[in-house]
């Protein structure tokens, strides 16, 4: 195992993930929870094999709005064709996967298949480190606040034109995106028991527990800038065969859209999680 930063990220040499023993898988799970995102190189998985591996970490999570791969309903092809030009990049905003669900995914597994010669990197940021960097007064204040998580500014009908620019992904926006869930702003990771600043600008549309609207907006902007600060992050340059596994309960991520004219394909599966708790 090789750490990638002093905050999060590790490169793990576990061999072929299809042949991991139960003991090795438990060790890998512990490393994912500890380092928040891990990378395993030189993996070659069919859609079915990726699902079989994902299910060993837990049952499949719900994936609303996005039509799955025809090869398997639990896999999403994250695909932007060269002909799509400057179309919006799937995952192209800081977010934690589907945090607007009652039970957001615990882990995401992403396999790189076709990578552009440059660009298309993905960034991760540690929400554990972001919490640890708060001062005592902030920690105490934020403990009483909740985030209103909603997909309304990502997948409601008003956003359909943005997603329709991807010719090989079918993202269907609908009014269910206007629903919301309230999750604590400070959560406790269910496996590590570490405190997490559970915030992302893509899906947190309001704060519960504050009455002053101006101060609320200022706090939300500050939270975005704080949680995505470079000192909490890692930027990954993909190589075909890379398998990334990350913990949505303690991270945000952001896929860069700087590879216009090139094709990029990765296969994504997600593992069901639990309701975030204080």
Task: Note down, in words, how this protein is organized.
It is a single chain. This protein is α+β, with helices and mostly antiparallel strands and about 280 residues long. The chain has one domain: 4-Layer Sandwich (Double-stranded beta-helix). The chain has 7 helices and 15 strands. The strands form 4 sheets. A 7-stranded mixed sheet has the order 1-2-3-13-5-15-4. Strands 12-6-14 form a 3-stranded antiparallel sheet. It has a 3-stranded antiparallel sheet with strand order 8-7-11. Strand 9 (about 185-190) and strand 10 form a beta hairpin. The longest helix is centred in the last third of the chain and has 15 residues, at about 215-225. It is globular and about 50 Å long.
Short structural summary:
The chain is of the alpha+beta class and 278 residues long. Helices cover 22% and strands 25% of the residues.
């Amino acid at each position: 195992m090789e750490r990638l930063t002093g905050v999060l990220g590790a490169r793990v040499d576990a061999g072929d993930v299809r042949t991991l023993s139960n003991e090795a898988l438990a060790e890998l799970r512990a490393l994912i929870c500890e380092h928040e995102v891990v990378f395993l190189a030189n993996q070659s998985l069919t859609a079915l094999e990726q699902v079989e591996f994902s299910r060993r970490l837990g049952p499949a999570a719900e994936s609303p709005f996005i039509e799955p791969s025809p090869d398997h309903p639990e896999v999403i092809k994250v695909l932007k064709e060269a002909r799509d030009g400057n179309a919006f990049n799937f995952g192209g905003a800081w977010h934690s996967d589907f945090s607007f669900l009652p039970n957001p995914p615990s882990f995401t597994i992403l396999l790189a298949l076709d990578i552009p010669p440059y660009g298309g990197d993905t960034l991760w940021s540690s929400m554990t480190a972001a919490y640890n960097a708060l001062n005592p007064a902030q920690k105490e204040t934020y403990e009483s606040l909740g985030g209103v998580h909603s997909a309304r500014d990502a997948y409601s009908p008003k956003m359909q034109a943005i997603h329709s620019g991807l010719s090989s992904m079918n993202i269907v926006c609908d009014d269910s995106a206007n629903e919301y869930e309230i999750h604590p702003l400070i959560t406790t990771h269910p496996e590590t028991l570490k405190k997490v600043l559970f915030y992302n600008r893509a899906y947190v549309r309001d704060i519960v527990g504050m009455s002053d609207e101006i101060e609320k907006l200022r706090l939300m902007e500050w939270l975005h800038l704080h949680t995505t600060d470079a000192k909490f992050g890692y930027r990954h340059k993909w190589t075909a065969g890379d398998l990334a596994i990350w913990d949505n309960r303690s991270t945000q991520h952001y896929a860069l859209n700087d590879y216009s004219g090139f094709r990029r394909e990765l296969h994504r599966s997600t593992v069901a999680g639990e309701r975030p708790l204080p």
